[in-house]
Amino acid sequence: MVEVILYKQLVGSLMYLMNTQPDLCYAVNQLNQAMVQPTKMFWKAAKHVLRYLRSTSQYGLWYKWTEGVKLQDFTNVDWVGNPSNWNSTSGVIFNLGSARVSWYSRKKRSVALCSTKA
Q1: Nearest Cα to 31, choosing from 60, 55, 2?
Q2: pLDDT tens across 41-98, in order?
Q3: Which helix (DSSP H) or strand (DSSP E) does residue 102 occupy?
């Protein structure tokens, strides 16, 4: 059995690290979906992410200032992208110049039967 509190602390720490390592987004998102009842499979996956972090500790984001920097946002919606629960996922990315500075992805709480209702 997996210690739920320890798992939540680990995933919370990984969420904080996503600010400097956006390559963790998908993995942490998947780990985050098992917060209530994590299984051994999710615990092993979280440890795998930690091993990945150790091997890529020299990488990160570097921001360079240039003239005429613009803040841009991009949005996307994946209609019924998860067939296990039929929920849609939406995401937003904010870029400052050519550097990604913020992003989020959310699973919709309700199921829309068509795009008009969403």
Answers
A1: 2
A2: 999 999 999 999 999 888 766 666 777 788 888 888 776 666 666 677 788 888 887 7
A3: strand 99-107
**Which amino acid is located at 69 in the chain?**
V
**Is residue 108 helix, strand or coil?**
coil
pLDDT in tens, 3-33: 889 999 999 899 888 776 778 888 898 899 8
Q: Domain ranges for the chain, please list them.
A: 1-57, 68-108
Question: If DSSP codes are grouped into helix, strand and coil, which group holds residue 93?
Answer: strand
Supply the DSSP string of 52-90, one letter for each residue.
HHHHTTT--------TT--EEEEEEEEEEEETTTTEEEE
CA angle, 27 then 74 then 65, to 5°: 90
70 Cβ partners below 8 Å, 6+ apart?
A: 96, 97
Map residue 94 onto helix, strand or coil.
Answer: strand
Assessment of whether the complete model's pTM goes beyond 0.85:
no
